[in-house]
Amino acid sequence: MDNFETVSDETIMDGDATDAYFLRTEEALKKKNKNPEVVAEVSADQFSDGEFEVFAGLNEAAKLLEGLPIDVDALPEGTFFDGGPVMKISGNYLDFARYETALLGFLSQASGMATAANEVIEAADDISVLSFGARHIHPTIGPMLERSAYIAGCGGYSYVGAEEFMPDGAVGTMPHALILAFGHNNQKEAFNAFNESAPEHVSRIALCDTFSDEVEEVRMAVEELGEDLDGVRLDTTSSRRGKFKEIIKEVQWELEDMGRGDVDVFVSGGITPNQIKELNTVIDGVGVGSYISNANPVDFGLDIVVRDGESISKRGKLSGEKSVTRENGRVSVSRNLSETMLEPLIRDGDVVRAVEMEKSRETVEKERKSLQE
Question: Positive or negative, the Cα torsion across 44, 50, 56, 62?
Fold first, then answer.
């Protein structure tokens, strides 16, 4: 059997996961015996535009660049950025040239997903948010998705393939496939099978919108599972929802009528931040998939700004090393290098600052609160 169409860790670490023109650049510089000492910066926007994004993917970037004879400074992972460099690389150009493609890929996609997840968390306010998006992306990058969502504040994730990288195990109860496998009008049998087979630590949350009206299937779940029932999930497709908030209120009314007002109500199925804002007063939790997994990558670029001690840039870019500072929510980009948000990450190939998931998550939370004040 042929391998899946992915590259190995070894290929990435060797610098062979790159664009061809970087190899042509290496050949040309070596041919002319040139290897300038440069400073290169990674940035998305030169100046503040008022739209903050979440910096993520630094853990893999550090692994990629570790061992190269270069110095790297970067924003702490989880920092909200809005203009100016997020990373600076100092060294001889040929020592890191071929790694640009992989470096930008690590940072761009993770930052895009973390930014989208943060939008979800802001909309959710205090309700629980789970990441359900692994089915929309290549399975090899599922762990990156779940990590990005987690540092942005998601409380759990569904992808079992991410468990070895994450602090807690994957969560999940039942899909429509379980209920469909039992056939029409056999929802209670499916609920019972799940209840009897699921490990004790798994919450008993019944999916209640497969064949019948949501309220009707919620009643079935209460009748079948009794006190074992912890919650119900509504995953109704958007074309069938109608007034979704009113449907949820009806479900809650019936739960109260049955003496089960303690049963939590969760929603999922293409949910967006705007929909969460509308629903967050009537639900206990939400599963979000495509809004996070399908997020546009942040459009990072890497540009040489200093060559052999002299400021330089291509047209449309600011030359010279730059600092980034922020005060009262406003980002400032300047040449004053004595004060900057970028911190040492690598010195002569050695990683001098660990990129820890829990610390990154704390950084996001602090940043979010700071900018909301």
Answer: positive
